[in-house]
Design goal:
Length: 275
């Protein structure tokens, strides 16, 4: 599926290199889509680009934009019912902007958890080019379920599983940060503008360590990732515990050094002093 959907850019380049003028399938595609809608008694909406979409369930989470990472379960087929691709469990795409225009636009009408159908004319897909089992000029249809937008819901499920598997007693904050407190501490409690000295160990939910400091290190909290800055403020000097940080409070969709985009990261910390 990934190769099919990201092939649009290459197809555009190929099309431009041909001497023959491209065929305009717009009118014929629209007639075919309207006929399909009528034959299947669909309640479809048409956008200004010529895309048709059916919303069976709107969903109640985030709406994606072109730069978002999404996970989608789908079935792709032609108007004659021939299936050309399918992912029942869902496939993760690192960025919508790498996909065909009909998908970029179509998914934006759904919220996380939404289900429906995209009926995509050729000018929003592969134009006058054959693409695998998809003939040139074809209308393509996708039954879709927008499972995740970015990582927030997925991260939260991963964190809850980690907490259960490790028998942790963790607090969840309004931001989505989880923390455990082994020792509260008895000294000064820092604010987000303070400089602190700590020791820490950073690792993933699979236990792989990506960073560690056994000796005191000083940081200005305001310069750290949001989850770390927030988490430290729940402890007092002498306190220790664990911060379990979802990616939207860390590095988001971006790979940073050895930390892949979308990762939950965990820190065992000890707050030595507030400076």
């Amino acid at each position: 599926m990934k190769n099919i959907l990201i092939a649009f850019t290459l197809i555009l380049i190929t099309s431009c290199s041909k001497d023959n003028a491209p065929v305009d399938y717009t009118t014929k595609n629209d007639e075919d889509i309207q006929a399909y809608i009528a034959e299947n008694n669909l309640n479809a909406q048409k956008s200004s680009t010529g895309l048709y979409y059916v919303i069976d369930e709107q969903g109640n989470g985030e709406n994606p934009i072109a730069t978002d990472r999404v996970k989608v379960a789908y079935k792709g087929y032609l108007t004659n019912g021939t299936v050309f691709d399918e992912s029942v469990d869902g496939f993760s795409f690192s960025s919508l902007q790498n996909l065909i225009p009909g998908w970029i636009e179509g998914l934006s009408y759904f919220s996380e958890g939404g289900k429906g159908k995209l009926l995509i004319p050729a000018h929003l897909a592969y134009g006058g080019n054959n693409n695998g089992a998809i003939p040139a000029g074809s209308v393509i249809i996708f039954d879709i379920e927008l499972i995740y937008v970015n990582y927030e819901t997925e991260n939260d499920q991963e964190i809850q599983t980690y907490i259960a598997d490790n028998d942790l007693v963790a607090e969840k904050t309004s931001s989505g940060l989880y923390y455990t407190m082994d020792v509260v501490g008895e000294g000064t409690q820092p604010t987000i503008t303070d400089n602190v000295s700590i020791t820490y160990k950073g690792y993933f939910t699979n236990g792989n360590i990506f960073d560690e400091s056994s000796q005191s290190v000083s940081f200005d909290l305001k310069n750290l990732i949001t989850g770390f800055s927030e988490g430290i403020t729940y402890f007092k000097e002498g306190g220790s515990g664990t911060l379990i940080i979802p990616s939207h409070l860390a590095y988001g969709n971006t790979d940073v050094s050895v930390i892949p985009g979308g990762s939950v990261i965990i820190f065992d910390i000890e707050l030595l002093s507030v400076n």
